[in-house]
Amino acid sequence: MKSRLLDLLACYTCGSPLRLHPYATAPDGEIAEGYLECEKCREKHPIIHGVPRVLPEPFRTDLRLRYPDFFQKYPDDFPAPPGAPAKTWAPSREVADMYAYGWSKFTEAWAEFRREFLHVVDPPLTRDSFRDKLILDAGCGQGRFSRFMLEFGAREVVAFDLGEQVDTAHQHNLQGFSNSHVLQADIYHIPLKAEFDLAISIGVLHHLPDPEGGFRSVTGRVRPGGAVFAWVYGWSPIIRMLQLLRKITRRIPRRALFHLAVVPTAVLHILNLVYALLDRLPRTRRLARRVPLRQYSDRSFRGKHWIMFDHLSVPIIHFYREGDLEGWLRRAGLRNIVVTERYKGQQGSSWRGYGEK
Ligand SMILES: [Zn+2]
């Protein structure tokens, strides 16, 4: 954790500043271990492996199971509560668990992810939209989108997520940027001031128990005149089929599902090869347009493997129809709203929304 992050942090309960108590500093000057304490509530939030974990209950107690070494090391500041800690089964924590596992298997910020990012945000955003901005990445996963925004010239990026994928983001994709910050936090209790020029949430809100509530919370961290961008899944028959399959695959242990997902990945890959073949010849080009899921043709096999694992294992997915996202933006009181459809008219379409505060 960089001490500069303190200027942006605020208690999610009372809005007061958080005070830093460092235990250990890394060679690069970042705080490796320590804790943050609300000046008013006196609630303590640990900094573990260089990442502050500013979480409400039950996620705060849950940290003891995830990082037992830290809590054993500092019993004076973090005395053990009576009784054995129990695992939290909050729905959003289950989603975070799945992504923490998934992103530990897919840590790369591939070139195809960068292409995907620009394809998701454009329109209305382009790579120049991030330049010199203070940006919030709500639901950062392994940090690839934050990394791209920093590469496109963002002034500073704060990336947060609910689970241990923040460790992947911190150690793999955001390491070495002097203007990046990683935080473990809950989207419904974001411990940050309302100072951001731009907040983005890509592929996150549709996995929440209350997606619109999450969107509103993210919007709450944007300064007046700042902007919000969100991307959510659309509804289509092929997605409906995948949902039926997911009812079964969700129950398969994650490790096994990771390997099993290679089978539908191969099917998708073959569909994409058929499309590429038909698209090459003028006579079959019209037929090529009828091959489903052709939008994945430019992905690597491994990139498709990630998509399949994601779709078959995630505990919660909501799908949206035309007008849904616009409703969120309007009810949040945003102006200059732009909602567009990605992959318009195709199977697996989706929605992107932008609005200004
Ligand atoms: Zn407080």
Short description:
With 357 residues, the chain is α/β, with parallel strands linked by helices. Helices cover 36% and strands 20% of the residues.
What does this structure look like?
The protein is of the alpha/beta class. The protein has three domains: 3-88, no CATH class; 104-234 and 318-356, Vaccinia Virus protein VP39 (Rossmann fold, 3-Layer(aba) Sandwich); 251-313, no CATH class. The protein contains 13 helices and eleven strands. The strands form two sheets. It has a seven-stranded mixed sheet with strand order 7-6-5-8-9-11-10, with helices on both faces. A four-stranded antiparallel sheet has the order 1-2-3-4. Strand 10 and strand 11 (350-356) form a beta hairpin. Helix 10 packs across helix 12 (301-313). The mean pLDDT is 93. Zinc ion binds next to loops.
Q: Notable features of this structure?
A:
357 residues, 4-stranded antiparallel sheet, binds zinc ion, alpha/beta, 3 domains, 20% strand, Rossmann fold
User: Helicity range of the residues?
Assistant: 25-40%
Which homologous superfamily in CATH is the superfamily of the largest domain?
Answer: Vaccinia Virus protein VP39
Proper CATH architecture of the largest domain:
3-Layer(aba) Sandwich
**Which molecules other than protein and nucleic acid are bound?**
zinc ion
CATH topology of the largest domain: Rossmann fold
**Radius of gyration in whole Å, from Cα?**
21 Å
Average pLDDT, all residues: 93
Number of helices: 13
Order of helices and strands: EEEEHHHHEHEHEEHEHHHHHHEE
Low-confidence stretches: none
| Straight-line distance between termini | 29 Å
Structural class: alpha/beta
